[in-house]
Amino acid sequence: PESNSPVSAAAASQGPTCGRANFNRIVGGTAAGQCEYPWMVLIYNQITHEVCGGSIIGSSHILTASHCLFELDDRTRRYVQTPESHLIVFSGSSTMPIGNTVPTQGLRRNYVADVITHPNYNPSNARNDVAMLKLRADLPQDNCHTPVCLVTGQESPQAATGCRTTGWGKTSNNPDELATSNLRWTSVSIMSDNQCRRIYGSSTASSATLCAGGNGADACKGDSGGPLVCRGSDGSFYQHGIVSLGLDGQCGKIAGLYTRVATFLPWIKANLV
Fold first, then answer.
1. Which partner from 94, 117, 149, 198 sits 20 to 30 angstroms from 258, CA to CA?
2. pTM to 2 decimals?
């Protein structure tokens, strides 16, 4: 049996249609169909031109990674939180305006009202790498804007099945490659906590993190902040992780590190207002 058999309280609060993919590279990934993963958004920094992923978790809230929302201040040479005015959140399409790609019909530009990074996040390490964006306006309620379900914390991530990551990040370890304009997905397996600690060490891997991927499939640069989701027995997708970090040049070779959503569920729910 799959680990998410009951619909979680968090999922129930998000509405009855959370986590519904529209079925009829990420490294090693496969191109997604238009609005196939309708909770996916692209977060674009207009100043640094960095891109990150994120997931819709409410009518005007995006879940992502804190490290996506810090930038280096040229004057002080210190990392500072990204101002709301620097960010655009693209939604409603699997094809994004990256490079020379022509934007697809349905692409929506959303502006940010508030950047909410975890108060204990430290840019020098991967701990507490979780953040939320509050948008200025509610997202549409349609097949291209559906929130992902959130896990309750009662499930064993390692027992979950049908797990995958999605993103517009690089599809190889080539340092000159740009992010891809087409959303890609790849199947991954969640490793045991012991395996995770062997890769990243106990100072980085903790009860607040997960490891997944490897064997040629994993998130890569540009996928940061995006969701690690697994399919529940009700057919919905539940978010277990947030793409946090990987080892340089090892996309798809070494499992990536993800923020464990269940650990931060109280903080997420407290800011989902």
1. 94
2. 0.86
